[in-house]
TrEMBL record:
Pfam families the record matches: RrnaAD
Domain of life per record: Bacteria
PANTHER family associated with the record: DIMETHYLADENOSINE TRANSFERASE, DIMETHYLADENOSINE TRANSFERASE-RELATED
Upper classification of the organism: Bacteria, Pseudomonadati, Pseudomonadota, Gammaproteobacteria, Chromatiales
Function of the protein: Specifically dimethylates two adjacent adenosines (A1518 and A1519) in the loop of a conserved hairpin near the 3'-end of 16S rRNA in the 30S particle. May play a critical role in biogenesis of 30S subunits.
Originating organism: Candidatus Sedimenticola endophacoides
Domain Ribosomal RNA adenine methylase transferase N-terminal: 19-191
Protein name: Ribosomal RNA small subunit methyltransferase A
Enzyme class: transferase
């Protein structure tokens, strides 16, 4: 497929056969899977997934890639391509009863974080997600409390999913080669949520506020959202900085504020 990568779409096309094989092996597609690829590009992964599953969907923003990809995959199975921006696409429309979504993709690095947040809001059941991302982003996704990598993305993902970094991918596996290292990661949404969040909007607001001023103590960064009594009720030290508070602590603090919004 002859297509010049477009910088405005954040396109870096995967071409390394060894890396492609390792990715497909990690996904382990099967007939009947409800596979959805985000940004199939030139079809490096699409071809292998379609051969194994027999049918799948894809969401592609670059219209110039859709016709060549359709031709490439014509004899491999049933491929439904949606010409759309993944940041605005309603993935719930692809849900099928008894077949939870399996999301995969080489996500454009320039929109990876907002796209991950968008996917977290998917109203349809999701079995798993497998993504290629900038290595630094994967490190943030899987980070434990206490380090500079731990932040809003860590908390918002880990409260919903198990994050499993699988392997690193060097720049040479892509065309053009990016200036950063990449990594492949698996996200497994919890079948039974380990945390009970009473108000998702308030929880998200508290996490965002805490890390927007991460050098401040929680008492100061959350002054407009959390009262002293809420810290005490949740068993959270208000003198901590956000990077020291584990996911459970954010959940307990948000629930305390939600259930007693005005302790006075």
């Amino acid at each position: 497929m002859n297509h010049r990568p477009r910088k405005r779409f954040g396109q870096n096309f995967l071409h390394d056969p060894g890396v492609i094989a390792r990715i497909v092996s990690s996904i382990a597609p099967r007939p009947g899977d409800n596979l959805v690829e985000i940004g199939p590009g030139q079809g490096a992964i699409t071809v292998q997934l379609l051969r194994a599953a027999g049918s799948m969907s894809a969401v592609e923003l670059d219209r110039d890639l859709i016709e060549p990809l359709t031709r490439l995959c014509a004899d491999l199975g049933q491929l439904e391509i949606y010409s759309a921006d993944a940041l605005r696409f309603d993935f719930a429309r692809l849900a099928r009863p008894g077949h939870p979504l399996r999301l995969v993709g080489n996500l454009p690095y320039n929109i990876s974080t907002p796209l991950l947040f968008h996917l977290l809001e998917c109203r349809a059941p999701v079995r798993d997600m497998h993504f290629m991302l900038q290595k630094e982003v994967v490190e943030r996704m899987a980070a434990a409390p206490g380090g500079k990598e731990y932040g809003r993305l860590s908390v918002m993902l880990q409260v919903r999913c198990r994050v499993e970094p699988l392997f690193d991918i060097g720049p040479g596996a892509f065309r053009p080669a990016p200036k950063v290292e990449s990594a492949f990661v698996r996200l497994l949404p919890f079948a039974t949520p380990p945390y009970q969040i009473d108000d998702g909007v308030r929880f998200a607001a508290i996490v965002a506020a805490a890390f927007s001023q991460r050098r401040k103590t929680l008492r100061n960064s959350l002054r407009k959202l959390v009262e002293e009594a809420h810290f005490e009720h949740a068993g959270v030290d208000p003198a901590l900085r956000a990077e020291r508070l584990p996911v459970r602590g954010f959940v307990d603090l948000a629930n305390a504020a939600c259930n007693d919004p005005d302790p006075a």
